[in-house]
Amino acid sequence: MKTKKKGILRRLFKTVLSFYPVLLPVAIACITLTAIVGAVPAIFMQRVIANIEEAVKGALTWEQAGGPILNDLYILIALYVVSIITGTIFGQLMTIITQGTLEKLRDKMFNGMQKLPIRFFDTTGHGDIMSYYTNDIDTLRQLISQSCPQILISGITVLSVLFIMLYYCLWLTLIVLAGTAVMMLVTKRIGGGSARYFVKQQAAIADEEGYVEEMLVGQKVIKTFCHEEEAQAGFDAVNERLYDASRRANRYANMLAPALFNIGNVLYVVLAVVGGLFLTFNVFNVSFSGMAISISVVVPFLNMAKQFTGNINQVSQQVNSVVMGIAGTERVFDLIDRPPEVDDGYVKLVRAREEDGRIVESKERTGMWAWKHPHQADGSVTYTKLQGDVRMFDVDFEYEPGKPVLHNISLYAKPGQKVAFVGATGAGKTTITNLLNRFYDIADGKIRYDGININKIKKADLRHSLGMVLQDTNLFTGTVMENIRYGRLDATDEQCIAAAKLAGADDFITRLPEGYNTFITGNGASLSQGQRQLLSIARVAVADPPVMILDEATSSIDTRTEAIVQRGMDALMKGRTVFVIAHRLSTVKNSDVIIVLDHGRIIERGTHEQLLEQKGQYYQLYTGAFEFE
Amino acid sequence: MVKEIVHSLREYKRQSILTPVLVTFEVLFEVLIPFVIAMLVNRIEAGCELDVILKFGAVLVAMAAASLVFGVCSGAQCAAASSGLAKNLRKDMFYKIQSYSFSNIDKFNVSSLITRMTTDVTNVQFAYMLIIRLVVRSPLMLVCSFIMAFVMGGSLAWVFVAVVPVLAVGLIIIVAKTIPLFHRAFRKYDNLNSSIQENVKAAREVKSYVREDYEQGKFGKASHDLRKDFQKAERILAFNQPIMQFCLYVVMVVVLSFGSYLVITNTGVKGAIGVGELSSILTYGFMMLNSLMMLSMAFTMIAMAGESGRRIVEVLSEESSLKNPENPVTEVKDGSIDFDGVSFKYSAAAERCALSDIDLHIKSGETIGIIGGTGSSKSTLVQLVSRLYDVTEGSVKVGGVDVRDYDMEVLRNSVAMVLQKNVLFSGTIKENLRWGDKDATDEEIKEACRLACADEFIERFPDKYDTFIEQGGANVSGGQKQRLCIARALLKKPKILILDDSTSAVDTHTDAKIRKAMREFIPATTKIIIAQRTASVEDADRIIVMDGGRINDIGTHAELIKRNAIYREVYTSQNKEGHDLED
Predict the structure, then answer these.
(1) CATH number assigned to the domain comprising residue A537
(2) What residue in B sits closest to A231 (Cα-Cα)?
(3) Model confidence over A550-563: pLDDT tens digits?
(4) Ramachandran angles phi, psi of A579, nearest 5°
(5) Which of A521, A544, A567 is the last residue of a domain?
C-alpha cells in the first residue's frame, strides 16, 4: 500500500516533469533556494543578537559595535532580496505548472476516454465519470499547487534547522526529536481519524445525491400523490448521517492545529527547563561547534525549536489533502491508463469510380465508395464496391463471461433490404446492432460486410458506413443546424435542410423561434422527445450511410406523426440496408424479413404474411394475445 | 443573500456564537504565551535559578493546556456549527423543492438542483467555517499582537503601523482583482463539466459518427480557455506571498538595525528594551502579518463561495406559483369536470398558448378518451384538472367548484393521475403501492392489482408483493411498470382517474381487460384516458380529438370515424392491414 502510494507520487512527478522539463526544475530550484535562504537568517539574527549582547555587556557605544552589526544586516538584506525574487519566480512558475498540468491531464483523460470502448460508458456510472473531471482534478490541484510545495519548503527548513540545532547541542536536539515523534503520533491519530471520517463524508454525500436524484426525477409523481412529507422524512434520515460524518471529520481536522501548536509550547517549556538544568549542572555538551553549554547556546536553541515544530505543524496540516490528493491522482491515472479500443482493421473505405468495369480509387467525390482491401500475402490490393450487404454466421455473444446473450445467430441482409427485429426486452435485439458496428466484439462466429469480415475493417470506416438512430436521442449544445451537421461535418446548410425535410423535421424546426439557428442547450430539454427523434433522423440522413440501424427510432413519435415521418423514413430507407428494432408492429410490418428473437435465439423469421400464417409467437404478438415488452 | 442563509442556522446558533468566543480565548493564550516565554528567556539570560525556570515552566504548561482546551473546543463547536448550517441548508432546499409546483419544477433541471444541494452547500459550509473561526481569529490576533508589540517594544512597534497598511492595501488590490476573474473561470468550469456530461451521455452517437477527434478538438479548446482564466487569476493571487515576504523582511531589518541601535545606546536606562523583547517583537510581527495573510485568503474563498450562496438562495427564494386558498374547500363532491373558456400558457413570456378556448363538460362517472398528435397538448389539458398548473384564462371546476378554491391535497387525493413519465421508487412493490394509500391493507392492495391486471405477474415473482423494485423501476418491464402505476393510483380510491398514455406498453388484450375492470368495479369514478391507440378509447362514452391545443371534435367512436378526418387517419394507420385479424 505504502509503496503503491509512493509509486503514484513518483509517477505524478515524472508526468509533471515531462510536461515542464525546464520550468519544473527551475521552480524546484527557486523554492529550495527560498527555503534555505529562509532558514539561514536565523543564524545571522543570532549573530546580530549576540553582538548586541556583547556590546551591552562591554558597554560599547553604537559607533564601536555598529560596524559588525550592520555588516551582518547587509548580508541579511541581500539574502532577503534573493528570497523575495526566488519566491516571486516560484509563485508565478507554480501557477503556470499547476494550471498547465491540470489542462494537460484533463485533455489526456478526455482524449483517452474518447478512445475507450463503449463498454466503459455502459458499465461506469456517469456521476463516477464526472467525478474524474471535478473532484479528482480538484484534489490534484491542491496537491500540486499547495501541499507539495509546502512539504518541500517545510522539509528543507526542518533539515536546515536540524543541522543548525546540531551545531549548538546534541542533547537538546534529541529532546526536540522526541517531541517531534510525539507530534507525528498525534498527527497520525487525529489526522487518521479525520481522513477516515472524510471518506465517510464522501460516501454520505454520494448516498444523499442518489436519494435526491431519485426523488427529484420522480418529483411530479410525488406531487400528484401528495407524498411530500414522506419524501422529506426520508431525506432527513440521509441528511442526518451526512451531518454526523461531516461534523466528526471537521472536528478532527480542526483539532489538529491547536494540538500540535500546544505540544510545541510544552516542548518549549521542557527545553527551557532542561536547558536550565544543564546550565545549573554544567552538563558536558556534544555539538558540531564544540561550544560548551551556555546562555548563548540555550536561548537561540529555544527559537530554533519553535521554528522546527512550527514547520512540522505546517506539514501535518497537509496530511488530509495529501491523502485525498493521492487517491485522486490514482483515479486520474487509472482513467488515463485504461486500454483504448483495439482497432487492427486494415480495410479502408475510399472514394471510387468505375473504369472499364474495374473499380479504382478516386480523389474527387463520385458518390461511390469502395472497400480498399490490401492483401498481406501477395501485396496486392482489391477494391470492393460499398453496397451494404450484411451477413452474420453462427454468432455467439456474451457481455459477461458465462452469461451468453446471443446464440447461433445467422442472418443476412442484402443491399436495400429492410430487416426487423422483434422480441421481448432482453431478447438481444439491441445487442445484435451493437455487434454490427463493433461496439462489442463477437465471441464466436463471423460477421461479413460486403463479403469482408468486419474484424478486418477499420472501425472508423465501418462506423462511417453504418448510421444509427437510437431510442434515447442525445443532442449537443449548439444550434439545430449544428446538430444536424453532426452527421457530416462538411455538409452545407442546404444539405442539412434537405435532410431535415426528408426526415419530416423541417416543419417543426421552422416553427422554432429562430428556425435552424435556434440554440438548444443541455440535452435539448426544450424539445419534446418526438422532436428530438426527428432531429436525430435528420442527422443520420445527412450522413447518408448505406446501412442504417433504427433502434426504436420512432417510439416517441405518435402514430399520426409517425405516418408523416414514415414517408420521409421510406424515402430515407430507399436503396439502403436497414435494421429496424421497434415494438410498434405497424413500424416493422413492411420489412423484407422479420426476425423474432427470444432469449438470444432466433425463433421465427419471415415476412409479415408468412409469420402470420405460421401462427407462432409473432402472430400472438400481433393479435395482442401476448404482451410485448 | 446573507440573511436567507443565516436564517437556516436555527439550532446551531449557540455553536456559531460559542465558536468565536472560544476562539477569542484561544487567541488570548496564543498571544500571551510568547510574552511569558520572552520573560522566561530574559530570566534565563540573567542567569536565574532553576526553580524560577520551573515556575515559569508550570505557568507555561498550564497556559498551553488552556490554549489546547479552548482550541479543541472551538474546533469542535466550529465543526458542529458549519456542518449544522450545511445540514439545514440542504434540508431547507429539499423541503422547498417539495413545495414547488410543476411550473417551478420545470424551471430547474435535476442535475443543477443536485449540484446546488451538494457542491454549493459544501462551499458555503467551508466559507462559514472560515468566517466564524478565521475571520474572528485573524483580526483579533492582529490587534492583540499589535498591542503586545507596543507593550514590549514601545516605539519600535511603530514600524508595524507603517508596514501593515502597505500589506493590507496590497492584499485588497489582489483580492479585488482576482474575484471577478475567479467568477468567470468558475462559470467556464461549469460549462466544461456540462459538456463532458453531454459527451459521456452521447458516447454512442460520438462513436457511431466517428466524431472522437471533433469532440477532442471541442474539449481541448474549452479546456485551454478555462486554464487561461484560472492561470490569470492565480498568477495575480501568487503575489500574496512576495508582498507578505517583503513586509516581513522590512520589519526584520528595521527591528534588527534600529532595535540594536536602541538597545545599545540605551543600555542601563530603566524601561528600555532588551534583547528578549527584540526577538518577541519579531515573533509578534510574524503573527500579525500572518493573520493578515490568512484574512486575505479567507476573503478570496468567501467571495468565491458567494456565487454558491447565490445559487442556493435562488432555490430557497423561489416561491411556489400555486398557493392554497385562504378558506379552502375540503371536500370534493363528485367527479364532474368543467372547463369554461380555458386558455393556458406555460409561461407568461410564451408566444403560443398551449391550450386555447377549451369548453368541456364531463359528467361524474363518464369515461372520456383523448386522442391527438404529439404537441396537441393532451397532457396539458388533464394536468389542469388536478391543478398541477393554473389556467391562464377561464376556469376549471371539479365537482362544481373551481380547482383554485380547493385545498390542494384534498383535490389531488380525489384526482388520481398516472403520468406519462411514470416513476416507481426503490422499495418493495407494497411500499410503492402504498403511495396511493399508506394505510391500505394487503387485501386492498391485492384488489387494486387485480383491477390493474398486475396481480398475475406479481404472483409469479418469488417474493410476490415484497419484491424489491430498483430505482426507476429498472427491474420490471415497461408494461409491468405501467400496470403497477395504475394500481398505485387506484388505491387512492379517486373520484377522477386520469391515465395519461399509461397502457402504451401493455398488450391490447390486457389493456382491454383493465378497461373492463374499471368499468365494472369503479363505475362512479370519472375516467379520462389519453391514448395513442384508438383501440384504447373505442369504448369510451365520448372521445375528444385534440389538435394544436384546441378541441377539434368530440364524439363517440362511431361518430368520429364517420366525420373526423384526424381520428380516421389515426385509426386507419393502426388498423389498415390488421383489421380483418381483429375479429
Answers:
(1) 3.40.50.300
(2) B98
(3) 887 766 666 666 66
(4) -105, 125
(5) A544
The arithmetic mean of pLDDT across residues A365-371, rounded, is 79
* Helix, coil or strand: residue B528: strand
Q: In chain A, how many domains are there? A: 3
C-alpha pair distances (Å), B327 with each of B125, B403, B404, B405, B407: 41, 13, 11, 8, 8
To 10 degrees, the CA torsion angle through B430, B435, B441, B446? -60
Cα separation, B60 vs B115, in Å, equals: 48
- Residues B112, B412, B335, B430, CA torsion sign: positive
A128's enclosing H/E stretch is helix A126-131
Cα R_g (chain A), whole angstroms: 37
| Residue B425: closest C-alpha in chain A | A214
Mean pLDDT of A449-469: 87
A203 at interface of B, judged by CB pairs closer than 8 A: no
Yes or no, beta carbons of A528 and B374 under 8 Å apart: yes
ipTM (interface pTM): 0.82
In angstroms, how far apart are the furthest CA atoms of chain A? 124
Amino acid in position A55: A
A277 and A208 assigned to the same domain: yes
In a domain, residue A558? The reply is no
Of B200, B268, B417, the CB nearest to A121: B200
- Are A271 and A359 found together in one domain? no
B257 with A73: Cβ contact below 8 A: yes
Please name the residues between 126 and 165 in chain A that touch chain B, using a CB distance below 8 Å: 126, 129-130, 133-134, 145
Put simply, whether A22 touches B (Cβ < 8 Å) is no
Report yes or no on whether pTM surpasses 0.80. Answer: no
Q: At B369, which helix (H) or strand (E)?
A: strand B367-372
Picking from A489, A511, A544, the residue at the C-terminal end of a domain is A544
CB-based contact, A63 to chain B, within 8 Å: no
Q: Which of the 8 DSSP states describes residue A43? A: H
B388/A130 touch (CB, cutoff 8 Å), yes or no: no
Output the pLDDT for position A525. 57
Query: Do A170 and A106 sit in the same domain of this protein?
Result: yes
Are A489 and B253 in contact (CB < 8 Å)? no
CA A461/CA A463 separation, integer angstroms = 5
Cross-chain residue pair A253–B79, CB shorter than 8 Å: yes
What residue in B sits closest to A46 (Cα-Cα)? B279
Where are the alpha helices (H) located in A437-552, listed in sequence order? 459-464, 480-485, 493-503, 506-510, 529-543
Q: Which neighbouring-strand residues pair with A382?
A: A373
Q: Are residues A301 and A359 in the same domain?
A: no
Q: Can you tell me the distance from the alpha carbon of A99 to that of A95, in angstroms, rounded to the nearest whole number?
A: 6
Residues A295 and A372 in one domain: no
Confidence of residue A100 (pLDDT cuts 50, 70, 90): very high
The enclosing domain of A330 has a CATH number of 1.20.1560.10
- The verdict on A293 and A353 lying in the same domain is no
Residue A582 lies in a domain: no
* Range(s) of the domain holding residue A526: 472-544
Q: How far apart, in Å, are the Cα atoms of A262 and each of A177, A259, A461, B29, B279?
A: 16, 5, 69, 10, 20
Domain assignment present for A573: no
Which residues 457-496 in chain A show a CB within 8 A of chain B?
A: 460, 463-464, 466-468, 470, 474-477, 486-487, 489
Beta bridge partners of B397: B338, B402
- Cα separation of the two ends of chain A: 49
Q: What is the pLDDT of residue A1?
A: 44
Q: Are residues A247 and A307 in the same domain?
A: yes
* Domain shared by A315 and A378, yes or no: no
- Residue B466 and residue B428 in contact, taking contact as beta carbons nearer than 8 Å: yes
Contacts (Cβ under 8 Å, ≥6 apart) of B108: B315, B318
Mean pLDDT for the stretch of residues B159-174: 84
Write the pLDDT tens digit of every residue in A217-267. 778 788 777 788 888 888 999 899 999 999 998 888 888 888 888 888 888
